[in-house]
Model the fold of this input.
Amino acid sequence: MRAIESLLVEKGLVDRASIDEIIDAFSNRIGPQNGARVVARAWTDEAYRERLLTDATSAIAELGFTGIQGEHMVAVENTDTTHNVVVCTLCSCYPWPVLGVPPAWYKSSEYRARAVREPRAVLTEFGVELSDDTEVSVWDSTSEVRYLVIPQRPAGTDGWSEDELAALVTRNSMIGTGIASTPGGR
Amino acid sequence: MEGVHDLGGVEGFGPIPNRLDERPFHHEWEGEVFAMRILTGFWGGWNTDSGRHSVERLPPTEYLSMTYFEKWLASLVNLSVEAGFITRSEVESGAPDPGTQPVEGAVGPDVVRKVFASGGPTLRTIDEPPRFASGDSVRAAHHGHSGHTRLPRYTRGRVGEVTAWHGAHVFPDRHAAGDGEAPEHLYTVRFDAQELWGADADGGHTVSLDLWESYLAPAS
Done:
């Protein structure tokens, strides 16, 4: 690997400063903290929530999150009767601007194979318990459209600020393999 | 192509691994491979779709045993060789072949920041009106071409309902093959679990996918 890197740099194909820029961006600036801002805004601002559900790309861009692997966004909302979960069975497509680089499990053969066939069993492994009458809606990311799950707002958070709420929004809750944390729950 | 990458619904896999591990990169080299694969893409030797196809073309046993970033590294090397950016002998030696001069024009961090913020939208305008509308019943095709496709095996021949239209988007099957963007209308199609997996399926779920118009035919 080192040899490939030095080869590409020596041949002038890759600028080492650009490598550092990308690693820094995905380690420090682009990650699930961005998606959490979007969800917290949707929880506190009904007009924003409606824009997010109608045109997620524009609504997410309002908060400054745009670009590569997030060019065409769709937000899907969990309710008392519907639970959404996102997968990419063919590779590992994932909404980078709002969630960053996917975690290892999202890219695993196990998740990619099982999420579309037995999502309830998969969700149970993640500790998500759903009632039998909750419809599970799986989204397989086959195009350049990327999906963001809006988890349900936890009870006991009336009057909370956007910052406080954003801290409850986990990465997995925006993929659908988790729910938002409960106040004092972690 | 009928590759092992087409994993949806394949049985026999065990519990989801590393469920509690959220780190984007586990080793420094993983971040470097991630970055280099993106940066070499700036030279235009391949596009998103032919890049994905290069991962799919890894031998099946290797594909399943490699980690995600190992696949990206293999793909980075294969694409760079196929595009003529580097040679196999350079990959083996780790140094430029004797007598080669470095190229000029690698993108710097400023350009990276700009391109990351704008991305590469795939929405296009075409003259043809969309053939399907929300509520239409459609059957996924049985096509079996050996190139890149975004029609997963588990949907082929199955009937679903159109739930959204996304406009026309670059068509991966032809884009990956070097036939230009060939945009087609793109739809979200929702399938019931029992249609996909049979009557004994883990019930009460649906699977929605984004499928291009030529993957679909009217079901009734």
User: Anything to note?
Assistant: Chain A touches chain B through 78 residues (CB under 8 Å). The beta strands of chain A are 72-77, 82-87, 135-140, 145-150.
